[in-house]
Amino acid sequence: MISLFERYEACPDRFFDEVLLPEGKPREHYDKMIHRFGQFSTEDIRTRRQVVNVFFRNQGITFTVYGVDEGIERIFPFDLIPRIIPSDEWQRIERGLIQRITALNEFLADIYSNQKILRDKVVPAELVLGSKHFIREFIGVKPPLGVYIHVTGSDIIRDAQGRYMVLEDNLRTPSGVSYMLQNRQALKRAFPVLFDRYKVRPIDNYPQELLRTLQEISPTSRPEPNVVVLTPGIYNSAYFEHSFLARQMGVELTEGRDLVINNNKVYTRTTKGLQRVDVIYRRVDDDFLDPLVFRPDSKLGVAGLINAYRKGNVALANAIGTGVADDKVIYSFVPKMIRYYLNEDPILDNVDTWLANNPKDLKYILENLDKLVVKSANESGGYGMLVGPESTLEERERFAEKIVADPRNYIAQPTISLSRHPSFFNDCELAGCHIDLRPYVLYGKTPTIVPGGLTRVALKRGSLVVNSSQGGGSKDTWVIDE
């Protein structure tokens, strides 16, 4: 094995290694990559890492960490070794995600209309109707094209056997796609030579595909629908992404104070006067969209927006109430939804999940907290969770009290041995770090997926948590034609 990989340990008896086979040889689709890296010295790696850091800093590629004292903005950590997915593996991921998103959209259309799946007791009605994000007031409100989830980011992992599985779905305001796009640009700047011998599928058309999707859901017949991005503002953790996507699509980035409602129609203030808005790509949660309907103390939304939405004068992406389908309790029923609505077996499996509101499952969870990962049903970003094997007895006891007090709000899953990928840290040392994958599905007239996604990597040694807010970073993700 060449220099940079000489000391790399794959640990095939414990983890699926994305790059090396159990006997230590490179997987076929990584062979050229490893030999390319063999041409670089440690100093070359340091220099190229600096190139990436300067690029990220100049582009303002940051994220916000809440609850820290040293400042809110951080450069997004990026690892120089790309993750490679062969075309046959990608085809399976793509088919599985389109199947899954189609079923989830059918589920949302159903529960906000006839609720047949609840009457047939495929999904327990109390779990749906009692979900924090189920909004009863929107029963009967149909979005354009009957599509509720226009942008989805489902998190995919590989277990110790290398099987692709869906860990969770993100259907409200999934973030990270801007990092996917900028990672590609950063790697091209740092290692243009790496792209010489691979047919890497392009991803730079994502902003145009997103704009097309948003224009397709316009409720008006205007030939060029006006699309805007609605952001909570500069202190939101994903503000860079909001401004980046608006810029790439060539549309206005707006805050709630920039929009006004007149005669149940939405307008944005411009230097030329009010301009009609047809579609809002909103990065503001349901609760903050309209102080007349949801939280009266919200300064992020627009008074009267919901009435304009009800009247069919503006489209919102994603639709209101989609959060019920990325509730982690409801996640466990997605395979049943696929069979119920599509009469198909799931292409991508779920991770085994125990529901704390089920007395039998609750008993198992409490007795095995040291072995399980326990998650709050509606938290994200790695918050509200317990990684049992990495926890202390005191932490488990505190978490057990929370679970018993509110069992509907918790699920548990086995501690999956996430696949690992060699990554640089500690001054160019190579080590296996756990990764996942978040592809992005767009859904207008039909579902489409840009090949690849955001590969998130746990850059703390031994950590299973890939979220940037918990010390994670990301890699460029290549889907290749062989």
> How many whole angstroms does the radius of gyration measure?
23 Å
Mean pLDDT: 90
What fraction of the residues are assigned to beta strands by DSSP?
15-25%
- State the share of residues found in helices, binned by percent: 25-40%
Structural class: alpha+beta
In DSSP terms (H or I, runs of 4 or more residues), the helix count works out at 13
Instruction: Please report the total strand number as a whole number.
Output: 25
Which spans have pLDDT < 50 for at least 5 consecutive residues? none
What is the first-to-last residue Cα distance?
Answer: 23 Å
> What is the 3D form?
globular
For the largest beta-sheet, the strand count, sense and barrel status come to: 6 strands, mixed
Commentary on this structure:
The protein is of the alpha+beta class and 482 residues long. Among the domains are: 3-89 and 175-201 and 427-481, no CATH class; 220-313, Rossmann fold (3-Layer(aba) Sandwich), CATH 3.40.50.11290; 352-414, Dna Ligase, domain 1 (2-Layer Sandwich), CATH 3.30.1490.270. 28% of the residues lie in helices and 23% in strands. It is built from 13 helices and 25 strands. It has helices spanning 31-37, 42-59, 87-111, 116-119, 125-129, 177-190, 206-216, 239-249, 305-310, 328-331, 334-342, 359-367, 393-405; strands at residues 62-64, 73-75, 78-86, 151-153, 155-158, 164-168, 199-200, 227-230, 252-254, 259-262, 265-270, 273-277, 279-282, 315-317, 349-350, 354-355, 372-376, 385-387, 410-414, 420-425, 429-438, 440-443, 447-449, 454-458, 472-481. Strands 3, 7, 20, 21, 24 and 25 form a 6-stranded mixed beta sheet that branches. It has a 4-stranded parallel beta sheet with strand order 9-8-13-14. Helix 3 crosses helix 11. The protein is globular. The model has no long low-confidence stretch (mean pLDDT 90).
